[in-house]
Every structure is written in C-alpha cells, then in structure tokens.
Specification:
Blueprint lengths: L7 E5 L12 E8 L2 E6 L3 E5 H4 L12 E4 L3 E10 L16 E3 L2 H14 L6 E11 L2 H8 L2 E5 L2 H4 L7 H12 L14
Parallel strand pairs: 5-8
Antiparallel strand pairs: 1-2, 1-9, 2-3, 3-8, 4-5, 6-7, 6-8
C-alpha cells in the first residue's frame, strides 16, 4: 500500500460521475491496509442540527445544518470540531481538528456554540461517512477518479460549502501544474 491519505482531501476528478461523489471533497479520517474512511465536507443538507439531535439534546434552533458525510451508515451522526477538551476521543485528523461521536462531545461543542451566540468552537455535524474496503480506494485513485491534496482546517469549515470543490480543484491544479490548467486563448497554441 502507498502512503496513508489520512489528513488529506480527496477531490473527485471531473470524470467521476458516481452520484454519491460527483464534485465532492472528502476529508480522509483513516487510511490503511484494511481500508479507508472519510467525510464529504461539501454536501450540506436541509436538516438543521437542532432537529437531527432533538431526541437526544435540547439545543436552540440555529442555522447549522447536517452535512451528508457519505453513503455508509447514513443514520450515524459524527461531529468534526476543534474543541481540544475532547481530543482524547481519538487522534486529531489535522492539528487541532477532532472527530467526535460521544454524546458529551455533541452536547458540549454544539451547546456552547449555540449558547454563546458566536462560535467558541467550530464544528460540522455529518450524517454517514464514506468508506472503502482494502485496496478499493487505491484502485479508484489509480483509475483517475480522485485527486489528493493536503487538507486544511480553513476549507473544512469554509463559509460557503458549495464553493469548496472549485476552490480546492483550483488549488490542486496550481500546486500540480506544468502547464496552466485553463488556457485563455486555445488558438494561440
């Protein structure tokens, strides 16, 4: 197996037409010999976080929405956050960026953010995740379905998630180009 993609973004190549991943960006949480998993970070849903967690917590209604993390276990909720108080739940994905699934992490991170009226901690809640069996992701990358780019916190919590794909694709081409990605006048060739 090649080097781990943990802490990287996978950017769907333009040729990838799978409905689950068309124009998606996946933050890789795990990648090893037994498979890989990540969260699609640019698919907000219309479901508000307070509504999704209503049976578990009494949270104020905010504009925060649940993101579709991927097609695997769509009823499972995961929180991606920067609250270092919960760093013991698992290793950080990026420096200062953690994955949580415990009720305490959900209640504290979301509750504090909602109560303060400003974001004390940045967070995103995801429904489901993206997963690959052993060797599956490597085959898809070899086939040209995915582009890999170093992940950054800024893009994970980007204000407009619908702009993430184009912004990261542009960054990828800028850092991996020999010739310009877009030629202004192809007749000058």
């Amino acid at each position: 197996m090649s080097e781990s993609l943990r802490g990287q973004f996978l950017i769907a190549a333009k040729r990838l037409r799978d409905d689950n991943f068309y124009k998606s960006v996946v933050l890789m949480l795990e990648h090893g010999e037994h498979g890989a998993m990540g969260l699609v970070i640019n698919r907000p849903s219309s479901i508000k976080v307070a509504h999704a967690l209503a049976g578990h917590f009494n949270l104020p209604d905010t504009e925060d929405v649940v993101f579709g993390g991927g097609p695997v276990e769509p009823s499972a909720l995961v929180i991606l956050h920067d609250d270092s108080a919960f760093q013991d739940e698992g290793p950080s994905v990026l420096p200062g960026l953690f994955v949580g699934g415990s009720p305490d992490a959900f209640e504290r991170v979301i509750g504090e953010a909602a109560a303060s009226g400003s974001l004390k901690h940045s967070f995103r809640v995801f429904s489901g995740y993206s997963g690959w069996g052993a060797g599956q992701l490597e085959s898809e990358i070899e086939r040209g379905d995915w582009l890999s780019h170093p992940a950054c916190r800024e893009m994970v919590f980007y204000e407009d998630p619908y702009e993430i794909y184009d912004a990261l694709l542009q960054r990828f081409y800028e850092s991996n180009h020999i010739l310009p990605h877009r030629v202004k006048d192809p007749s000058a060739n």
